[in-house]
Specification:
seven-stranded mixed sheet; Aspartate Aminotransferase, domain 2; alpha/beta; binds pyridoxal-5'-phosphate; three-stranded antiparallel sheet; Aspartate Aminotransferase, domain 1
């Protein structure tokens, strides 16, 4: 059977290579410390799990869920108002997704025709690229560079490209570069999108994993943002519900309706038991959110301080669950070679920056998804690796 040509474009050589080597290293009996995938290692709070136990016994929770419980959409609207001071109409401005990935993957199918340009951060979260390839659009990478504080330089986008662009992806707090953005940046994005008639899709998955008292803002809090775009919010990171597969698209009603049109041909909604858990998460006690962020903050500090003691200075991020680490001083080879050598010699798995785009060269992404003791062990192993290098 010949696979469709679009699948060839979707394969990621680097992720496959890391996976292969991980298996070999494990076969040698080495305990791999996997700081690769950004999957939360903590469970949801007990009250969220209990809500699912109760919901399981409700017999009206087993039909096709379709558009999502209105109570869930109201809960999300209230949460957005409390947290971001953004008003949302629960009927027309909130769409329930099977994880935000569902929306990130399908939005391009609703708006991008073959040959349309999509502006994508480089480095960027892989689904932004994959969604464009599935819709047969053309990718125009917007470099995220340290000297621009990892914000895209909108002025550097040629005018003819901007005119042909249909959609723009942005994501703050960012994966993989762990950078943050403020209202000023979002205001520039709104202005740019207005001028060139571009749909802005902001991914705000990490808004609640923020450190040292910092509170990320919603793109939709920017005046005019709802006219030009939507935002994707996820319960996966905030409430450790990654396996539940629940998220939201919020904002411009016409855009959401088009996304819903695609989705209504593909799925029949999120299991109502999971929707109940979403309500419990959004409306219940929020201490778990602070505790979760504190956990990542402590891990960040263990790793940043530990690596600094080895002479490897990694910027301490203000939010997200990652370090975006320039390769250690004096390391002359590529990010890919560094990640492969590190995994092979120490069993510590990090992702080469180039897995997320060309501009990721010279960096690795380290996910803070292990407890502090395991991270100390990782530092120890990295220390031996750096000594013999
Ligand atoms: C983890 C993550 C998400 C969340 O995806 P879900 O499908 O909601 O689990 C979205 N965007 C980015 C950048 C992420 O890292």
């Amino acid at each position: 059977m010949e696979k469709a040509y679009r699948l060839h474009k979707l394969t990621s050589a680097i992720f496959n290579e890391m996976d292969e080597l991980k298996k070999q290293v494990e076969q040698r009996g080495v305990q791999v410390i996997n700081l690769g995938v950004g999957s939360p290692d903590q469970p949801p709070a007990p009250h969220i799990i209990e809500s699912m136990h109760r919901a399981l016994d409700r017999l009206d929770n087993y039909d096709y869920p379709l558009a999502g419980k209105i109570e869930l959409r109201q809960a999300l609207a209230r949460w957005y108002l409390r947290r971001f001071e953004v008003e949302l109409d629960p009927v027309s401005e909130v769409l329930v997704l099977m994880g935000s990935q569902d929306g990130l993957a399908h939005i391009a199918l609703a708006f991008v025709n073959p040959g349309d340009i999509v502006l994508v951060p480089d480095p960027g979260y892989p689904i932004y690229y994959a969604s464009i390839l599935l819709a047969e659009g053309d990718i125009y990478p917007m470099p995220l560079l340290a000297r621009n504080e990892f914000l895209p330089d909108l002025k550097a986008i040629p005018e003819d490209i901007a005119r042909r662009a249909k959609l723009m992806w942005i994501n703050y707090p960012n994966n993989p570069v762990a950078a943050v953005a403020d209202e000023n940046f979002f205001a520039r994005v709104v202005e740019f999108a207005r001028e060139f008639n571009i749909l802005v899709c902001h991914d705000v998955a990490y808004s609640e994993l923020a450190f040292d008292g910092y509170k990320p803002v919603s793109f939709l809090a920017t005046p005019g943002a709802k006219d030009v775009g939507i935002e994707f919010y996820s319960l996966s990171k905030t409430y450790n519900m990654a396996g539940c597969r629940i998220g939201f698209a919020v904002g411009n009603p016409k855009v959401l309706s088009a996304l819903n049109q695609v989705k209504s041909n593909i799925d029949y909604g999120v299991f109502k038991v999971i929707q109940e858990a979403g309500i419990a998460a959004l409306e219940g006690p929020q201490e778990c959110v602070r505790q979760n962020a504190d956990t990542y903050q402590r891990r960040r500090d263990v790793l940043v301080h530990g690596l600094a003691e080895l002479g490897w200075y990694v910027p301490s991020p203000g939010a997200s669950m990652f370090l975006w680490a320039p390769l250690p001083p004096g390391y002359k080879k590529s990010a890919r070679e560094f990640a492969l050598e590190l995994l092979n010699r120490t069993g510590v798995l990090v992702i080469p920056g180039t897995a997320f785009g060309e501009q990721g060269e010279g960096y690795v992404r380290i996910a803070l998804v292990k407890d502090e003791d395991t991270l100390r062990e990782a530092v120890k192993r990295i220390s031996e690796f750096l000594c013999t290098h």
